[in-house]
## 1
Amino acid sequence: MSISVAVSGASGYAGGEVLRLLATHPGVTIGAITAHSNAGARLGSVQPQLHSLGDRILEETSVENLAGHDVVFLALPHGASAAIAAQLPEGTLVIDAGADHRLEDPMAWEKFYGSAHAGTWPYGLPELPGHRERLRGAKRIAVPGCYPTSSLLALTPGFAAGLLEPQDVVIVSASGTSGAGKAAKVNLIGSEVVGSMSPYGVGGGHRHTPEIEQGLSAAAGESVSVSFTPTLAPMSRGILTTATARVKPGVGSEELRAAWHDAYENEAFVHLLPEGQWPATKSVQGTNHAVIQLAFDPHVGRVIVSAAIDNLTKGTAGGAVQSMNIALGLDEGLGLQQLGVAP
Amino acid sequence: MSISVAVSGASGYAGGEVLRLLATHPGVTIGAITAHSNAGARLGSVQPQLHSLGDRILEETSVENLAGHDVVFLALPHGASAAIAAQLPEGTLVIDAGADHRLEDPMAWEKFYGSAHAGTWPYGLPELPGHRERLRGAKRIAVPGCYPTSSLLALTPGFAAGLLEPQDVVIVSASGTSGAGKAAKVNLIGSEVVGSMSPYGVGGGHRHTPEIEQGLSAAAGESVSVSFTPTLAPMSRGILTTATARVKPGVGSEELRAAWHDAYENEAFVHLLPEGQWPATKSVQGTNHAVIQLAFDPHVGRVIVSAAIDNLTKGTAGGAVQSMNIALGLDEGLGLQQLGVAP
Amino acid sequence: MSISVAVSGASGYAGGEVLRLLATHPGVTIGAITAHSNAGARLGSVQPQLHSLGDRILEETSVENLAGHDVVFLALPHGASAAIAAQLPEGTLVIDAGADHRLEDPMAWEKFYGSAHAGTWPYGLPELPGHRERLRGAKRIAVPGCYPTSSLLALTPGFAAGLLEPQDVVIVSASGTSGAGKAAKVNLIGSEVVGSMSPYGVGGGHRHTPEIEQGLSAAAGESVSVSFTPTLAPMSRGILTTATARVKPGVGSEELRAAWHDAYENEAFVHLLPEGQWPATKSVQGTNHAVIQLAFDPHVGRVIVSAAIDNLTKGTAGGAVQSMNIALGLDEGLGLQQLGVAP
Amino acid sequence: MSISVAVSGASGYAGGEVLRLLATHPGVTIGAITAHSNAGARLGSVQPQLHSLGDRILEETSVENLAGHDVVFLALPHGASAAIAAQLPEGTLVIDAGADHRLEDPMAWEKFYGSAHAGTWPYGLPELPGHRERLRGAKRIAVPGCYPTSSLLALTPGFAAGLLEPQDVVIVSASGTSGAGKAAKVNLIGSEVVGSMSPYGVGGGHRHTPEIEQGLSAAAGESVSVSFTPTLAPMSRGILTTATARVKPGVGSEELRAAWHDAYENEAFVHLLPEGQWPATKSVQGTNHAVIQLAFDPHVGRVIVSAAIDNLTKGTAGGAVQSMNIALGLDEGLGLQQLGVAP
């Protein structure tokens, strides 16, 4: 018996990617597809890549149109998803690709988002210790941000194994422009971004910083502080995260490698690459996979971890579908078997 | 009962793309994966995007390693595929992604390729009139070139309907760099191609010109001559073809539109877009779909047709798998349900 | 004695490029730099690449601020430039980078622009026959469109020499995204354009079609009709034009090559490349140069000409400065000695 | 009286960029232009962007061809430049764009380059404290590596002012592909690099690490250790460096900002941007300028500095020409007045 799903925010990048994955998911039937300013339009006119769904008409994003499905995906601006989620039936599985329900600390939420905290939901990154269990049977899931997904996958094994110092963690990530959304802004037009790289949200100002610290602190069992700098790269998709932390005295290459190996050896979507092979974002393009490599630099006593994901797939829609599968008791990889579109 | 397939040339772009599609094809089992200079390597080291096949080892490309499968895909340099194909059992379905068996005219072959003609095989572009029938049960299939795929899909409906003049056909195509293969050449390195466009093979010199003319002439029932100019665009994948022909006296927009509509209305992978919407290569990225739009320009009496495909998918590996499905009597779309990876 | 120049529209791409060139022009002093919505801003905040002018403040675009200079560059939306130009003193050299004064035929203007025609000014493409003379001492100059610049440079020698048929001219151009201006539109954002190509204005609908036909007809001495299709390429700058025309009976390669050679052998900025070398847009990036190559395709009786320019330099601001130099009796190449920024 | 200059390695990216700058330098005459495998070729065939020098013929790189000029630029593989330099007259100004003479520590050289150390020359980064003086009248100059240029410009002011801790410095840089040279390697072809980011030389393995540490240690007056990770970005040119260090107790935003301000306020080519404006590599494309911004992140006690340069200009050829100007007593900015080619 097929599961009915509704997707809101379907004219944006996150919503479009959710639809791309669900369209070939063997266990679901796509019900309402909703949008705001594009309501009434043919889906193919705003998401021309969704060939098999091209003739579907975008409905208005409303509780009425979304309710009545087994699963509702919210791909809405922060604030909007909490408002709608609060009105959906408790028995509906609601998966929020936005930020509203990720943070546990209401003060951190208010500091970075400037509004009242809407509460914390189970966090849809099943590869983190203990998270898969929390997602089973869940009716509300907060999909992680794309930067936190890559950062947490990069560093959690070391913190969970007690190998890393909680201070002086430095993360620099490069993201494709789709991370900034489908927004008509001059600084995002092709002429500006092609052939250029630039940072933004520097100095702890990016909203993903508290989310990264929350996840690493949970793994470490102590407070981890992070210097996080995101940069915009001239590509549509992909995040390459370079994460580095001081290792505890006496820890060396083998112990480090073993920790990452053990963390991911049974994971279908997160891969520690063979030694000597480094991640490239294109190798995960369009997929739910993450690829990771690490090196210990004894001259500075730090481990450097490189992780690559597709920000829209593993970093958003793929993680959302994977979490849905777990919550519903389905095979975790349903709808997520795509391999990388490379070159 | 699963069909066993072997893929040669698996370290190149065409071979890698065949594997990407076959890896999620529900009806096949991937047997030998072969290469030449990379034989012995882990597939994941040369095709890191093929996560589920990463631990497979590349075998040497040889008749011995390829024989014994139900289907053999040849993604080899021209000349090499004919030599191997000649030694494979008659009962094996051999699908040649190379050029060796596309042309019907031995003189055209010799002029453009400089070697003896290896014979002509059924042509794997099922959307052309009469071609799907020829593929059913076939044991040898020649996969079309990527430029001919886009050019023939663009113009065949008009010629088949008798609406276009056979002279003064002009086609200008822009291709992503993957069309030039995975070759270590200075003119192909990123620093040269990023931010630049350039033509090549101008003046009838490109080997795809006779293949395009062969297909259009067959549709027209008379000799069609084409001025074809390929250009290299700063992207990895995708072909955008702009094709224009003079319309016969008295022919107008409605008649033209009807011809294209009728040709493709029952096709799963070729789409005449709604009026006003124009093809973009990204909308078909990673898919077996082709999108087409046309406009009649009365002030010059010409129809201009725009067609976008992914050169590696519909233009190579997707067409190959689609043709395999037809030849074997499978559902034509098996393994080809991926939607476009966009943005 | 230095010539004072004012630049309007300085927050846009055309205006910024005019300033980039004028900043190193040894004969001019940059006076007012004006904008509309960005008036009051530091120039460096909107044009960060103009380091030496970064602390200049953008003034409001008005007749008052522009008058009183020896030269005024207008880089404004069509319609706006004609309104301002009409109020500037007759003795001021006004150079309009917009469309308002390019077309000679008021009916063509009204058809494509939908407003009253503002009159025709000397056309700033000095390499066309007779045009350099018309620019000497001129007080009003219309800068050609970027597509017409590349198209006219590509085909004029053949028409001027009487070698080409006036019908069935086909031009397909690929342009970088800066040709669409610095506009906050969703279809222009990096996520949409990176990795994609698409056509627009197909079927004679682009406003540059009548401008191209006007120029070619003047060269041919008879009415030339053109099928022109522009496409958007994933790069910031550059136009690659592929132009093809039927040659008159009896005309062959040598005669064609001689016509182009003779047309440009004394030009400093337009180069017929050595045989076998084809244009690449990056080779002219940031320069006022145009590079051209041609091939005769006897099997279809057509010449194919490839031309590459930088749409913002030779296609807009470089042509404007070159025309200014001629009008003022300066060395034609002043301020235009930059070589290509490649790779 | 014009200064005669010779340029070796002229078919590569560094050599081509040196020529681009020298071609518009008002004080020099370009003499021998030499190459190795391309000797005998027309310069325009390998560097088509150098329009005004296109007809020059590449000579063989040899002491004979290079000697007899006032200045010789060496843009050769490491090892090769030391061998040639040793044979050039002492009175010739030799400027080595390669690595051979950058490092002061022979053991560091041998560890990272595996050959005997050729000696240390004055280091061509005049904006570092005390360096401009050392370059005056110098006859041998080592041009810094591109990553060290951006890293040292980013962090030196803080170390020179005694504001930063010498441990836990972390630098992550993204470079355009031209930094890898004009080499026919499969991993550099456009199909691989377009749309992808990847790290390399991770874990202290990159040869630029000791060069960065050497410069920062000199500024700090104590040994500074650096975790440096370079990444490859999908663009031709540009380096964006994100550099972060712990600040000493009690140091805050104002003191930090003042240090950077004071260091660069009198520099023509290095700019601390106005607060709130962050570097973008395109804003320095084709120029000798560097743009810098910093932020203090009190929650981790670190300063994050972002610096953008063009790796081929300020990072190589521009620094070389600037150093030449200083050595010869010319105006430091001669030949370096180009503004950024943006968008």
## 2
Amino acid sequence: MGVQQKKTIELNRLSATRAAQLLARRELSAEQLLRACFARIEQREGAVRAWAALDKELALTRARELDRASTQGVLHGLPIGVKDIFATSDLPTRYGSPIYENHQPSMDAAVVALCREAGAVVAGKTVTTEFATFQPGPTRNPHNQAYSPGGSSSGSAAAVADHMVPLALGTQTAGSIIRPAAYCGVVGYKPSFGRSQRAGLKTIADSLDTIGGFARSVDDVALLASVLMRDRELRELDYDAKPRIGMYRTSQWRHTDHATRDAYAQAASVLSRAGAQVDEVELPPVLCSLVQVHADIMGFEMAQSLTFERTRHRAGLSSSLQALLDAGSQITAEEHRANLVRVEEGRQRAHSWFEQYDVVLAPSASGEAPFFDQGTGDPLFCRVWTLFGAPCVHLPFYTGPQGLPVGLQVVGRSGDDRRTLAIARWLLNVLRPGEGD
Amino acid sequence: MGVQQKKTIELNRLSATRAAQLLARRELSAEQLLRACFARIEQREGAVRAWAALDKELALTRARELDRASTQGVLHGLPIGVKDIFATSDLPTRYGSPIYENHQPSMDAAVVALCREAGAVVAGKTVTTEFATFQPGPTRNPHNQAYSPGGSSSGSAAAVADHMVPLALGTQTAGSIIRPAAYCGVVGYKPSFGRSQRAGLKTIADSLDTIGGFARSVDDVALLASVLMRDRELRELDYDAKPRIGMYRTSQWRHTDHATRDAYAQAASVLSRAGAQVDEVELPPVLCSLVQVHADIMGFEMAQSLTFERTRHRAGLSSSLQALLDAGSQITAEEHRANLVRVEEGRQRAHSWFEQYDVVLAPSASGEAPFFDQGTGDPLFCRVWTLFGAPCVHLPFYTGPQGLPVGLQVVGRSGDDRRTLAIARWLLNVLRPGEGD
């Protein structure tokens, strides 16, 4: 009964995996855990502002139900944050936009319902940028409130980093999971494209939008993903080989700061010493040109996906989003088709290129988080991987000169999610030893 | 001013293309056209039951606005039917399910908003089967009410066939556009996968759901599609070569009735005489085995997409859908991944196979529509094409022994939508000469 003797406030720091074990053994109650998370939220939310909607009584009612019930699934009793771009039947869903100030859906998004089916307690909705694009919400970086948490999954990354919840849902269309994970110093996982059902997600770019999540360890994020993708193999991350790692500076290396370069050099050296095969690699140059192709595909699709808002509620859109949609509207279907052909060629080249390496290790962002009033940062280092539908895992293991987190992303071959997560876990254990409960 | 002298009741039979010309020249008003369509609806809806929601006053208000405004776009003043699987901000959206009896979304689906931006008047919502799957709605085949209109886009196909509206939106996950088009005797077009944004569509299988439409001619359906896909090239369907046609009985030929076999033989002979290169072809046998793979991928994805309904409103689901979702829940992620690999291989083989032919001509359905009380028919002849993401156009040109429509579908290479539509137009002009206004 050791855990029950701990102060309530510390339960919120438990990993999801550990808490799930204690909950399953009934050594911890869902209500206790939720109360600890809400105590943290109440203490810190004024500074961090991670939440777009909270309903403590609703969550407590659900937690007590779970405490009375038999174990529902692998998330039984775990509090989660849900990015406010997913529909929830019992919490408002505003998409980070004043247009939807009073919007209450009648249903849960598919992944929210899957998490609930597996026993999760939705603690609340987390802040998203406007329609998961670039206009920031109110969320601050939990490590230093002068800085941005990144976007678009700002609240989910911040809430997990600040120990408000162990798990949170996010989405990535450009760099909306990996970048906030990097700025907030948590593990972010963007699965291969197409592995979760997006029903009830406010989609903005059908060929890019990908559902993923945040946690404080690879095991935890894989636990969540195993529910989102209904794939129990994602909970089996044993890996006892020595990975072949392609260290890749990317064509955007000139944009990296010293902290990222130091983290990169440290990773190369530490991983080598741990027995990994570490090679500096280059991708075929044609693939680098796809950064702009990603932006154009996203622009073309966004201008259509947000047609209702663009035509009927234009004044409710930020001026920067208006400009993005106007630019996207200028892209012709002919240009778009040519872009899709380039992507398909690129995907196939990347796919065969990956046969030489188990994973690529590359920057997640240019460096530490920008100041809050400078926006949520640039998805530059994520666009091509998202375009290829590759699984990406951000590994937080370094601290920059401002005292903010820095790390790198592991990129796997599209479809190789289990192996990518297993290697990510191996790498993080080497890069950040001794963490865990 | 010839058109204005016609009886109001006849305007509803105008093609979309012809009506759009008259509307643009202000020789026809949107209000006149809409009133003609509503006169037809009022006359026939009791028998056909194509509509899930109608609001004549709302539509008339919009038509009068358009009559006062400058021309908005290529659909200016054209009434359309919207399958009740798309969200509409001003009409209820029930997805063919009692669970959503009182559901009123706050937004228009992206494609509805695009049609409205182009000047379309939404006449109402058309009947869908339950969540666009198999449980029939009330719609009857307009040619003979003892028969099914097909599904899942039942109301859209029936409304267009019965001259209630010139254009209607549909979706296809298995055979939900091509099959009802075949049974109702209209042109149905399922575009290449991924060419329209699905925001606001109630998706059931993210890797398959495809937005398309219905009309009474290829020109008309291409006009609609040019808005859905924001691709003006789809309105340029001139084709003056002689197409190379692969006539393909498919591995399901044993399920075809005499009417389909007669239509097939007639097409081969008529098209040959018109100068087309007509070869009987076989696809690699491995591709035929993908019929079951399609069903399994759809089942796996549906069981997730409809998790909220499955877990929270199970009693509101038909027993047949409950059984489908239960079966889909039994498919493991490992099986699903293996299926995706087979599809990818199949797609690539099909893609290179298509280099020998401009299009494939194949059955759309086993034959004439089944009796109403026998369900909406089987998507057997559509599953593999949907799985490959290929553009498909149903061509109605034959009448079976029950007096019901029969035809064949044109299948193009994925991405070749313009050429597929252009050849479909050429073929229909040969197979059904002298139609049009």
